[in-house]
Specification:
Layout lengths: L2 E13 L9 E2 L7 H12 L7 E8 L2 E11 L13 E3 L2 E24 L5 H9 L15 E13 L4 E3 L2 E5 L7 E2 L11 E13 L5 E13 L2 E3 L4 E5 L4 E2 L7
Parallel strand pairs: 2-6
Antiparallel strand pairs: 1-6, 1-7, 3-6, 3-9, 4-6, 5-6, 7-14, 8-13, 9-12, 10-13, 11-12, 14-15
Protein name: CRISPR-associated protein Cas5
Keywords: Antiviral defense
GO biological process, one term: defense response to virus
């Protein structure tokens, strides 16, 4: 049975999709995590609370390089000291220095979006087709050239093996015997497992503060694998495979 999804084809000259635990050297995920794409969508749609949706993210990049960035550091309770700090923020001391950042070069992405509320398809489509400002994905300066389409998608059983060249985030719960990954000598699957952010809820702490509690998705980042004959997979109308978490929230 066919249904509709929004498909984004995105090109970026450079991009950094920062891995949260990287600081001195800001490493990048190989593809934008779900939270980064959801943030862009919500900003352009002017959504002020989370609108549940499913995402499939695939793509590639030509190479990586590194660049400098201005790095700011501070510690809770660290009072400003004229000899130690560059900036005074209401009595808090902030140091400024230089750090390195990893950049992906010549990035091409395909993103499929299907909101839980199908009435929002047109709203999201128009917000991305006619954005209120030029989109960015990753850092503010990572400009994204986006081509937007409404496409048909459907699940079908394969009549022959289908090789896949693009890199994908494949939710871990979807990996089964219908995939043929290039297997390493130790028997593991060739690829990298990540636990990436999708969306968050605001929770109160014991100190009456509010913090973000992230919903994280376990995925395998993989490329150059095969979808096997008789397996069932979701494709769009141009035969692009789609892998998204079963739960959208």
């Amino acid at each position: 049975m066919k249904s509709k999804a929004i498909r984004l084809k995105i090109h970026q000259e450079t991009a950094n999709y920062r891995i949260p635990v990287s600081h001195q050297f800001r490493e990048s995920y190989p593809l934008p995590p779900y939270s980064t794409v959801i943030g862009m969508i919500h900003y352009l749609c002017d959504f002020h609370e989370y609108h549940p949706m499913k995402l499939s993210i695939q793509g590639n990049y030509a190479s990586t390089t590194s660049d400098f960035y201005t790095r700011y550091e501070f510690k809770n309770g660290m009072k400003y000291d004229d000899h130690r700090h560059n900036l005074n923020a209401e009595g808090m001391g902030i140091s400024r220095g230089i750090g390195n950042i990893q950049l992906l070069v010549d990035v091409n992405l395909i993103v499929h979006i299907i909101p839980d509320n199908l009435d929002e398809l047109e709203t999201i489509y128009r917000a991305l087709k006619y954005p209120r400002e030029f989109p960015n994905l990753g850092r503010r300066e990572d400009i994204a050239n986006i081509h937007v389409d409404l496409v048909d998608i459907e699940k079908r059983e394969l009549e022959k093996d289908v090789p896949v060249k693009n890199s994908f985030y494949i939710p871990r719960e979807q990996i089964n015997d219908d995939f043929n990954f290039l297997v390493k000598k130790d028997g593991g699957r060739r690829g990298t497992y990540y636990e990436i952010n999708k969306n968050y809820s605001l929770v109160s702490t014991r100190r009456n503060q509010t913090e973000r509690r992230w919903n994280r998705i376990q995925v395998l980042y993989a490329s150059n694998f095969t979808l096997l004959e008789e397996g069932e997979f979701v494709f769009d109308e141009d035969n692009n495979p789609i892998f998204w978490p079963e739960l959208s929230n």
